[in-house]
Amino acid sequence: MEKLHIPVLLSEVMAGLKPKQGESYLDLTAGYGGHAKEILDVTQNYKDSVLVDRDEFAAKYLEREFPLEISIKNTDFYNAVLQLFKCGKTFDIILADFGVSSPQLDMEDRGFSFKNDGPLDMRMDRRQDLTADEIVNHYSERELADIFTTYGEESPGRAKMLAREIVHSRPIHSTKELADIIKAKSKHSKIHPATKIFQAIRIVVNDELSEIEKTLPLLPKLLNKNGRVGIITFHSLEDRLVKDYFKSASSLGEESELQIINKKPITAESMELLINPRARSAKLRLAKRN
Predict the structure, then answer these.
(1) Of 15, 76, 98, 154, which has the fewest CB atoms closer than 10 Å, so is most exposed?
(2) What pLDDT, in 10s, does the model give residues 204-262?
(3) What does the angle CA 28 – CA 9 – CA 179 come to, to the nearest 5 degrees?
(4) How many CA atoms, within 13 angstroms, populate the side-chain half-sphere of residue 247?
């Protein structure tokens, strides 16, 4: 299988989820199949496994690369979970990787990256209407400042300043234009000054945190007894949702649905960071169905 995307924390995922031959597997964000291939190579159970991705390019790639008997769903993970729950499906292993895939970042026309000049798009599912262009050019200064503060975790003062500058610079239609406006109003830093702003806009375009929040309580219902779930996040807002949910779902004594496997999030080793710098912010949390 051609590798379009290097899966993050792969050895840690394998060690934490401990796949066994015959087990069923649900990948809620299968992307280009990096984690799925390794897990399914062990389980060899394709007919009882499901791969999900809302990105049409990823879904088509999965259809080409995986055996016909595996079920592939081109939808967001919340709707996939609802469908599977209604069908009474359960699994031994569930994995979700909430990061943006390398192909999404590297394809200029997807508009995810400030490093490549492209249209302000940022849609994981290009069937939806809302784009980054709509937010940048039509949201009010106050709405933009709120987005930058809430989802980019920028300070209120900086969020307001950047929102004002963006509104005054309209129309803005490319990632480079937006990144240059932000950079011109920023001091030098280790990370690109547009990082948090692009993150905030992307979260709103794809309704990412709401999707996670709605999905988490349904996961135990899709797990078999002693089934394992692993979730990889890439920024503190996502990680906090997962951490808080795992804590609440495991704190009811004998009534608890989940048992936390790792108290602290697992992060990438230095060797992986050399090969795949995008893993530097990845955190893996694991839990087991009681």
Answers:
(1) 15
(2) 999 999 999 999 999 999 999 999 999 999 999 999 999 999 999 999 898 999 999 99
(3) 80
(4) 9
Class of domain 110-208 (CATH, top level): mainly alpha
* Rounded distance between C-alpha atoms, residue 227 and residue 89, angstroms: 13
Q: How far apart are CA 289 and CA 110, in angstroms?
A: 37
Domain ranges for the chain, please list them.
10-103+212-289, 110-208
d(CA 163, CA 161): 6
Q: Residue 264 and residue 253: Cα distance in Å, rounded?
A: 20
In angstroms, the CA 63 to CA 272 distance is 28
19-59 pLDDT, tens digit each: 999 999 999 999 999 999 999 999 999 999 999 999 999 99
d(CA 148, CA 162): 9
What CA–CA distances, in Å, run from 29 to 76, 102, 148, 212? 8, 13, 25, 12
Burial state string for 270-288 with b = 16 or more CB within 10 A and e = fewer than 16: eebeeebebbebbbbbbbb
What are the tokens at 276? 């795949």
| Residue 162 host element (H or E) | helix 156-169
- Cα separations (Å) of 281 from 9, 52, 117, 193, 223? 11, 23, 24, 16, 27
Q: Which long-range contacts (CB under 8 A, 24 or more apart) does 183-192 make?
A: 185/161, 192/114, 192/115
Helix or strand (DSSP H, E) at 213: helix 208-215
Cα 16 to Cα 262: distance, rounded to the nearest angstrom:
9
77 residue type, one letter: F
